[in-house]
Amino acid sequence: MKIKHTCTIKEGKIIRNGQIVLALDIQMPAVEFLPAAYRAMKLDYPKFFKMDNLCKLAFLAAEVLLQDTPIVQNERNEETGLILFNSVSSLDNDEKFQASMAGFPSPSLFVYTLPNLMIGELCIRYKIYGENILFVSENHNFEQIMEQVKIVADETAMRYFICGYVDFYKENYDASLRFIEVNK
After folding, report:
1. Residues of the chain falling short of pLDDT 70
2. Domains, the chain
3. 3-state secondary structure of 147
């Protein structure tokens, strides 16, 4: 297995393979940073604005991570797996949905009360038909992530993996993704 690309989004910066791709005001609230980053990168995916913040963060990280990879060129990605970790689940959106229940509960908030919806959004965007899983774990342990990649790689025909962790809660956001190629 070889790590081909990395992407980190944290504290107002988007970094790909160790190089800053975008740096915005570190004091910018997280809910403003995500659409500002989307616009600054001149992306064109209108569904972005309907996503919750966790999905937006995962989407931006994947957009940067997957530039110049076979994933964006393929019509179907049956040999691509997606393994993500997260420590707060969908708590940010869960709390918003809970607050909406004081009046008329919002169906658009309810749909994002599942953290694995971010995987669904990525699978739709990149036509990923391979194995996918989301683990909710207190720690972001890269060795644990790589163990899961190895298990799935050994038992399936997956040649590529998008893996890492994505967390969004209130003003705290952190994404760290890796694009891995498996030699089979």
Report:
1. 112-113, 184
2. 2-181 (3.40.47.10)
3. helix
